[in-house]
Design a protein that fits this description.
Layout (H helix, E strand, L loop, with lengths): L1 H16 L3 E3 L3 E4 L2 E4 L8 E6 L5 E8 L2 E8 L7 E7 L7 E7 L5 E7 L5 E8 L2 E9 L2 E9 L6 E8 L2 E2 L1 E6 L5 E7 L2 E2 L2
Parallel strand pairs: 1-4
Antiparallel strand pairs: 2-3, 4-5, 5-6, 6-7, 7-8, 8-9, 9-10, 10-11, 11-12, 12-13, 13-14, 13-15, 15-16, 16-17
Length: 191
């Protein structure tokens, strides 16, 4: 059993490191599938875009012509991802999740989308801790908006939204420890 597991790991690793890398201009899109120009076959591998000085700017990963993810890179001496987009493999070119990175590689924001590519959640992080979360329905806040202290534990802000309008109790904890509560109904302050 151990030998089979090692063999599977080696085959998987070999597949990962032997992935074909070509230029973006060496692919074309037809009916939401990506093909390799040289042989008109569905493309599996990574298509990249470089600056004239050789700096990697952008890349997309494909499997059987379906886009899986893309990376946008910071402009610098080291290759560091600034934005990663993960696509829905069942619905090509529909975004599933976007991840934004600081220059040091730490995630500072994620945006999650439903099966139809409609934004449903935005989360922000500091030092690996969740400090902000807001539910959406497309472009409008819809659900809970929460803010946390930098340690990611203490709730500093809470409010519910319905179709972009505050609805219910808005709670706020100021840095000096003062708490405030306001009541809203359909976007209008009632208390």
């Amino acid at each position: 059993m151990r030998h089979i597991l090692i063999l599977l790991m080696l085959l998987t690793f070999n597949k990962l490191i032997s992935q074909e890398k070509i230029g973006m201009k060496e692919t074309y899109n037809d009916n939401n599938l990506v093909y390799k120009v040289s042989n008109d076959q569905l493309f599996t591998g990574i298509a990249q875009s470089h600056r004239n000085n050789g700096h990697l700017v952008y890349e997309e990963e494909y499997k059987n012509g379906i886009i899986l993810s893309s990376n946008l890179y910071y402009n610098g001496k080291e290759i560091r991802v600034s934005n990663k987009t993960i696509y829905n493999p069942n619905n090509p070119f529909i975004v599933s999740k976007e991840i934004k990175y600081h220059l040091d590689g730490e995630i500072f924001e994620t945006t999650t989308y439903n099966e139809d590519g409609i934004k449903i959640l935005v989360e922000q992080f500091k030092n690996g801790k969740l400090i902000y979360s807001c539910q959406y329905s497309g472009k409008k806040k819809h659900g809970l908006e929460l803010g946390y202290a930098e340690d990611g534990k203490k709730l500093k802000y809470r409010c519910e939204f319905i179709n972009g309008k505050k609805n219910g109790t808005e709670y706020c904890l100021k840095d000096d420890g003062t708490e405030t509560k306001k009541e809203y109904q359909n976007g209008k302050k009632i208390k």
